[in-house]
Amino acid sequence: MKMMKTLIMLPVVTFFLCCVSGMVQAQNTAKTYVLAVGGIHKDPMEISDQDGFLVQLRDAFAASCPNSLFVLTPPGSSVPNSSGTSSAESVRGAMQSLSGAIQAGDRFIFYYVGQANVVNDDLRLNLPGEDITHRDLSRWLGEIHSATAVVILDCPGAGLAIESLAGPGKIVIASARSDQPYSTIFSRHFIPALTAIEGDGNGDGAISLLEAFQRAAQEIDRLYREQDFLRTENALLEDNGDGVPSQQPWRYEEEDVDGRIAAHYFPLEMRQSP
Question: Please, what is the Cα angle at 115 between 238 and 129, to 5 degrees?
């Protein structure tokens, strides 16, 4: 069985090595790299929703980083033209390959959407085969020396990972607190918010990561209030490196909380404030 897994992994890792090698030779300017990973679900509706989120995410980034965008999907996914099958091995292989390609001035975005659970103080991202823990992800992320790294975890209990993943140049978004174990709907609102011009709160003609987060968080809050549901998710953002996230980072100017860096980070274009 172990040999079979190894043989399955070879094409995936080879794919990434070839793509990354080509990118290094063809592109010397700063760029954005995106690795999106879909986890496993038991609910057919959640599987369908996840596939839709991954397609939307790929479409959103297609224009800004067409040659540095990779999407890993679980077996049976309906996402067309994925970069490979999601697993602990393929994610590790992809991040190892990207660590050799990403330069100091580049940007890296890791996006996970799927199920997860908390076991013995570990957040476990549920993938085919072996799970990935938040400690694994933190260690692998430490090998990528980009100017900025954004980690978005849309899964139950995601907040548990924030302290481990936080640090200088890191923006961490979690769809739920560590004590919230139910399925989340963050991507349903966040991914469309990346391109929703009506979410441009300061009118500068571009959507910052903070503006997309704020729009998604407030839409989810409105949904729970209007339908009188028990609140089972509270999105969090951390970007000042102290490991303590904020539920309302858009108030950073009044309350000196997280949000200042995310307010000047534009996911879909290489633009930063002076």
Answer: 115
Judge whether 37 lies within some domain.
Answer: yes
Listed in sequence order, the residues at least 6 apart from 49 whose beta carbon sits closer than 8 Å to its beta carbon are 188
Mean pLDDT by 10 residues, the chain (274 residues): 38 45 46 96 91 96 91 95 96 97 96 96 96 97 96 98 97 97 96 82 80 96 90 96 96 92 88 45
The total number of structural domains in the chain stands at: 1
**Among the listed residues 174, 135, 131, the one whose alpha carbon sits nearest the alpha carbon of residue 156:** 174
Whole-angstrom CA distances from 28 to 63, 64, 103, 171, 270 are 18, 16, 9, 25, 14
Token code pair at residue 209: 């990561």
Residue type, 141: L
pLDDT at 222: 95
Paired sense of beta strands 69-73 and 84-85, if any: parallel
Whole-model pTM: value is 0.88
pLDDT tens, residue by residue, 211-247: 999 999 999 999 999 988 888 999 999 999 999 999 9
CA angle 264, 265, 270 (to 5 degrees): 115
Beta strands at 116-119 and 122-125: parallel, antiparallel or unpaired: antiparallel
Beta-sheet strand order (sheet of 132-133): 116-119, 122-125, 132-133
Domain of 213: which CATH number? 3.40.50.1460
Domain membership flag for residue 243: yes
User: Which residue range is the domain that position 251 belongs to?
Assistant: 32-264
> Is residue 116 assigned to a domain?
yes
Which pLDDT tens digit goes with each residue over 207-219? 999 999 999 999 9
